[in-house]
Specification:
The complex is a heterodimer of chains A (336) and B (109). With 336 residues, chain A is mostly helical. In chain A, 65% of the residues lie in helices and 3% in strands. Chain A has 13 helices and three strands. A two-stranded antiparallel sheet of chain A has the order 2-3. In chain A, a hairpin with a 4-residue loop joins strand 2 (269-271) and strand 3. Chain B has a domain at 13-76: Ubiquitin-like (UB roll) (Roll), CATH 3.10.20. Chain B contains two helices and four strands; from the N terminus they run αββαββ. Chain B has helices at 12-16, 46-57, and strands spanning 22-28, 35-42, 65-70, 75-77. Chain B has a three-stranded antiparallel β-sheet with strand order 2-1-3, with helices on one face. In chain B, a hairpin with a 6-residue loop joins strand 1 (22-28) and strand 2. Chain B is elongated. Chain B starts with 11 loop residues before the first helix and ends in a 32-residue tail after the last strand. The chains are: A mainly alpha (336), B alpha+beta (109). Chains A and B meet through strand 1, helix 1, helix 2, helix 4 and helix 5 of A and strand 2, helix 2 and strand 4 of B.
């Protein structure tokens, strides 16, 4: 076996799994790396299930960031001040950036960027159900920052220690930026709550609409989440859906009090014995419906992404043609 | 040595498409530090790769200098397990300062 090879430093993989009968040894090496809490890196041998699970999870995560630009992007032209417009621009640009960090991580596993885009616009890969709800008022922009980005932080902070190196490193970058997202949302809502009665009503209305879908962002309850155990054994995931959901509720309740809004759950109360808040059960049938494509905005979100992709075709082709022309000229110049 | 095909097979349609080449991005965080690999991106040419890298990886002053290089131009060592590539460094303990016994009362050594 040679010690080096030319090729993509990340994705070029060595001999196929088990081709030299070494799979048990490789599996042991992989298991030991996970057990030592070290990271798996792109060129390491890994079980096919681990690779597939990661590609699916990272792609889904990337798609969520990309589709996530739409609900808030709709408010850029209607933001009430230049300050809010600039903030919203920066936030939506960050979401694009997050999608690209994650696509980059998925590519280290052998996924193909253009193929991932196709899978998204053809509906063959999913994105977070939360982005299939409409943004009806400007208060929604604030509530998305507070709830949706807050929930994303709960989900993503533990992923910074995920066992797959490129995914964990992408999450570190993303988490640093999410904090701005959450704070701008909360600050926006504080400003509105200091405004007129109509503005306060607008905030409460947005809270009422986004609370339950935000709780659903953590996925189905643990006993209905069959893949979670394997992902946790592989240390891709560090906490269960229900643990993270509880963490989000506990974190958000005091913030809601401070803001002066009511979370729309009559069962929500502090449980001294558990040291956590008790809360009601989200409508899991609704989550399943939205995931299956029957949410308020599923068709619109995918269609918008498809249109953007198709309308950008000539730009991609022109840049390719320009690059080819420049390369040909450079070569001609070198010969002459 | 044939690289294994990805399990998530690209669709038929995809193979006809010409994707922009992949670039690896390295950023110098500030003066005095090395460039560090931060990720990858697709671009039609070097110039576009640099501007994309700026927009993607340095939106918050994370860098003062960027290198981009076509991924296919990088030569890399193979994975670690069973690979003798790094073995020559393992048995040369005399390369480390701790190999040498020096009396405790000898100053500054």
């Amino acid at each position: 076996m040679v010690g080096w090879e030319v090729g993509r430093m990340d994705t070029t993989r060595s001999s196929p799994a088990g081709a030299d009968g070494a799979e048990p040894v490789l599996q042991q090496h992989f298991d030991a790396t996970i057990a030592r809490d070290q990271r798996i890196e792109p060129r390491d041998w890994m079980p096919e299930g681990y690779r597939k699970t990661l590609i699916r999870q990272i792609a889904q995560h990337a798609h969520s960031e990309i589709i996530g630009m739409q609900p808030e992007g709709e408010w850029i032209t209607r933001a009430p001040s230049l300050r809010r417009k600039a903030i919203l621009f920066a936030k939506v640009q960050d979401e694009a950036g997050h999608g690209l960090y994650l696509y980059s991580a998925a590519e280290t596993l052998g996924a193909d960027r253009a193929d991932l885009t196709d899978r998204l616009i053809e509906g063959r890969q999913k994105y977070s159900s939360i982005f299939n709800y409409p943004t009806l008022s400007f208060a929604d922009v604030g509530v998305i920052g507070w709830f949706v980005d807050g929930a994303a932080i709960c989900n993503q902070v533990p992923l910074c220690r995920s066992s797959y190196g490129p995914y964990a490193r992408a999450m570190v970058r993303i988490c640093k930026e999410e904090s701005f997202h959450q704070r701008q949302g909360y600050e926006l809502l504080m400003t509105m709550m200091r405004g007129t009665a109509a503005q306060r009503e607008m905030v409460q209305d947005a809270v009422d609409r986004w609370w339950w879908p935000s709780l659903m962002m953590f996925g189905p309850p643990d006993d209905a989440s069959p893949n979670s155990a394997q992902s946790m054994a592989w240390k891709i995931k560090r906490h269960s859906n229900d643990e993270l959901r509880q963490r989000f509720v506990d974190m958000t309740v005091p913030q809601a009090e401070k803001l002066g809004v009511t979370l729309p759950d009559p069962e929500l109360r502090w449980n001294d014995e558990r040291g956590h808040h008790d809360f009601g059960t989200p409508d899991w049938d609704e989550l399943m419906r939205v995931i299956k494509g029957d949410g308020p905005c599923n068709a619109q979100r995918t269609e918008r992404r498809r249109t953007a992709h198709e309308e950008g075709t000539w730009v991609r082709e022109a840049a390719t043609a320009h690059a080819a022309k420049q390369a040909a000229r450079a070569q001609k110049g070198a010969v002459a | 040595m044939t690289p294994e095909k990805p399990t998530d097979k690209p669709s038929e349609k995809q193979s006809e498409k010409q994707d922009w080449p992949l670039y690896e991005v390295f950023v110098r965080g500030k003066r005095g530090l090395n460039h560090v690999h931060v990720g990858s991106l697709h671009a039609a040419d070097d110039r576009m790769a640099l501007t994309h890298a700026r927009d993607l990886y340095t939106r918050r002053n994370e860098g003062v200098s960027i290198w981009v290089v076509r991924s296919e131009h990088i030569a890399a060592s193979t994975r670690d397990e069973k690979d003798p590539f790094f073995a020559p460094s393992a048995d040369k303990v005399y390369r480390h300062p701790t190999f040498y016994d020096i009396p405790a009362d000898v100053p500054h050594i």
